[in-house]
From TrEMBL:
Gene Ontology CC annotations of this record: mitochondrial intermembrane space
Signal peptide: none
InterPro entries: MIX23
Designated name of the protein: Protein MIX23
A Pfam family hit: MIX23
Family assignment from sequence similarity: Belongs to the MIX23 family.
Cross-referenced PANTHER family: COILED-COIL DOMAIN-CONTAINING PROTEIN 58, PROTEIN MIX23
Lineage: Eukaryota, Metazoa, Chordata, Craniata, Vertebrata
Length: 130
């Protein structure tokens, strides 16, 4: 998983203001569009995108953690192997990046939900989280 993939997966969050401006009417146009349905669909798309990214990032973290563990074990057996050391460091760096992406996700999600709630709160109430 790379930064490009995450960028593509975050498109819905990056475009939320535009999406809301083009699909959810202001009060003066409220009668012409079913804003509650539009907000509901956008909310469901957002939740799906957030869950999907969360799964992908956590899956990558799990896989990379496993590789790091394996490389550490191999490194203990072959302390002189510089190629192994380089590979281990590369995977550790990748793991740290992915863990930091989880924090970025929280910021992205919070920002999107804030914008969504400002615009859709009178049209749609998201279900309570369990």
């Amino acid at each position: 998983m790379g930064q490009e993939l995450l960028k593509v997966m975050r498109t819905i969050d990056d475009r939320i203001v535009h999406e809301l401006n083009t699909t959810v009417p202001t009060a003066s146009f409220a009668g012409k569009i079913d804003a509650s349905q539009t907000c509901k669909q956008l909310y469901e798309s957002l939740m799906e995108a957030h869950a999907s990214r969360d799964r992908v990032i956590k899956n990558c973290i799990a896989q990379t953690s496993s590789v790091v563990k394996h490389l550490r074990e191999e490194r203990e057996k072959n302390l002189d192997d510089l190629t192994l050391l380089k590979q281990l460091r590369k995977e550790q760096t990748k793991l740290k990046w992915m863990q930091s992406e989880l924090n970025v996700e929280e910021v992205v999600k919070d920002r999107s939900l804030k914008v969504f709630n400002e615009r859709c709160r009178i049209h749609f109430k998201p279900p309570k989280k369990e």
